[in-house]
Amino acid sequence: MKIDTQTYQARRERLMQSLPENSVVVVRTGELSTRSNDCEYEFRPHSSFFYLTGFPEPSAYALIHGHGDMTLVTLPKDPEKEQWDGFRFGIEGAIANFGANEAVALDELDSVAFAALDGASHVAYLFDDSTLREKIATWRSAVAARARMGAVAPTNFIDLAPVVSEMRLRKDTEEIAIMETAAQISVEAHKQAMRTVRPGMNEYQLEAELNYVFMKSGVRQPAYNNIVASGSNACVLHYIKNDEVIEDGDLILIDAGAELGCYAADITRTFPANGKFSEPQAALYQVVLDAYHAGMEKLTVGTPYEACHNAAVRTLTEGLVTHGLLMGGVDQLIESKAYRDFYMHNTGHWLGLDVHDCGAYKISGESRLLEEGMVLTIEPGLYISADNQSVDEKWRGIGIRIEDDVQIRADGPYVLTHGLPKEIKEIEALMAENR
Hints:
Blueprint: H1 5-17, E1 23-28, E2 34-36, E3 39-40, H2 47-53, E4 61-65, E5 69-74, H3 79-85, H4 90-98, E6 102-105, H5 109-117, E7 122-125, H6 130-144, E8 156-159, H7 161-169, H8 173-196, H9 203-216, E9 221-222, E10 227-230, E11 251-256, E12 258-260, E13 263-264, E14 267-272, H10 279-296, H11 306-322, H12 330-335, E15 362-363, E16 366-367, E17 375-378, E18 381-383, E19 399-401, E20 404-407, E21 414-415, H13 424-432
Parallel strand pairs: 1-7, 5-6, 7-8
Antiparallel strand pairs: 1-4, 2-3, 4-5, 9-12, 10-11, 11-14, 12-13, 15-16, 17-20, 18-19, 20-21
Helix pairs in contact: 5-6, 8-9, 8-13, 10-11
């Protein structure tokens, strides 16, 4: 699936409209990263660069000016290097396929940037890009050094991140279509894991089932490192070793999502290795599921972002009190954050080109209101450390998280990751199919 070239052009036009007059935008895609010796990781463009250009190759720069005109600076065609490293679009391909008004070879970057900055009042770029910051400082100094010859150096610099982040926060129909496809591929991968898991398998063998579905469905890589955590490993929030044996009686927590067209899906499900929840596992699982439903009710247009988290926290805390893991009044336990011994993360995050996507969560210190087109995750959880001596032994080592991807719509929240069981009976029924 591919976004239309005109969509990228429209984004560049909107970007320039949001900046002061006589601004120049400079963004870069990044470089190949070495894995070992002369072997590189597969290249993935910087998300904001890709959002504005759609250009997928490394070592490229985009200079955007006027009403959205774009000059792409890229590696030229080189038959000898392409023989070894693969196809390049080159100068003509950058114009023909990506809507660039002009394209030049990478070795002309300095001269093109010098010309773009000469006479510009403002230069906008991503301040956290130290490589680009140094280059812009060099270009600006070179322009200033020619002041006697009529060159005029820019005097104002604008961090591009807040501007592009707000644009990226609201997804259009093309983006939603890609994200739902990535979500549904991820759903099938999780179903495959539920159907195939057996006690005695290694976690990485179960991970292989995920990657098999991803790749056979057209996904080149996951959106992030797959988490396949059995038993108490599920209490490690970013567990990625995935190298331990799955024991009978373990719960399996899988947090994995596909990346399609640079857009991420993000799903977590927790299920029993032997196909049946034990009584303590089912009890805590139901608490997390109830928190999921409580939070989902708050994912509506005009509702503060934090309302989902607050609803989930209250439900989780009530459940912890009911089952004796916390003692005291619910309000006081929430105020003191006592629940954080068992639930230490937020109940979601923005989702898009990055799995933890950009966008402010607060405006002027207040939780921002949800709007149509926003996409976020909902992911309550409970994590009872195996070393926690303050709780009954039956609870120790249980880690549970339930996560879906949700589009905010006028008619209510729409789950992009629909079709993946999360009710206890539904999970057990699915797992029983091949047993």
